[in-house]
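Slide 14.
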Amino acid sequence: MISFTDGKLPGVVFHRIDLGLSGSESDLAKLKYLTQGKRIRRLVKDIKPDVVNVHYATSYGAVAALSGIRGYVLSVWGADVYDFPRKSPLHRLLLRYSLSRAKLLFSTSRAMAKETRKYTRKAIKITPFGVDTELFTPDKRSRGDDKSFVIGTVKKLEPKYGIDVLLKAAAILREKLPELRIVIAGNGVNEKEYHQMAEELGLGDIIRWTGFIPQEEAAKLWADLDAAVIPSVLESESFGVAAVEAEASGVPVVISDVQGLMEATRPGYTSVVVPRKDPEKLAEALLRLAEDEELRRKLGRNGRRFAVRRYSLDVCFEGIEEKLEEICRERH
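Slide 15: predicted structure.
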């Protein structure tokens, strides 16, 4: 792995190019990346990989394009094709250039591939996020019959994920559903703001904030919910891996009408879809689930089958491995 930010992975040889950046800086600060093309090319020459997979079309993708590396795969991830090109004509030009230099493009969803095709005619392979369906399973449920109706989510506490919409919907719902309880896992730049909002909405006594939790804890949290809520508000939510985790856990999912979320579920079969940024409609959908236990069970069963069949790790990685092996055969 070659990276401009720090990190470690078991069994991975890590090459850090330290530019004094964390990865969250402005586009202007990240221009430093573009000076590292020759260094990247030398590293790749020394490593002699069978395949180079560049992640994120802008920044890393631009560096790869400028480095002269040939035959690499480029993975797009969301903001790089949804948000970046809307900033200026120069941003769009840089994205087009980055995409043009790759041999093949990977996209985690059909929705994001459609967006990417606005800027390139390159072939795009759909490589959805896989979920460990042996970790995320209904068997992780440990709640007894406590008569409460528990809703929640596992997401970063940032504006694009609609946590404020969830809180406003919960405030509406509480008036009709005294047994309502809320669990929200994750941290982020808006953490203090959302905590304060919950208090102002009168939710302080029924909400639990867990902070960041590892996957093992997330699997238990999803399974213990009566309904999972993924109320993202931006199309740059290119694929709903959280929704798939909840489905694999046998939990009904309420999502906003973001294309990536609808692709990660099967609306009407595993999920209920509501308009984004609409707390009233979200509250209505949750009340319907609270009042209809059979519907919750049906959506949960369907969700488990859907996640295992379409988005289990083995299924998703087989498709990626086949494409990488094909590239290797062509190269050699």
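Speaker note: The chain has a mean pLDDT of 93.
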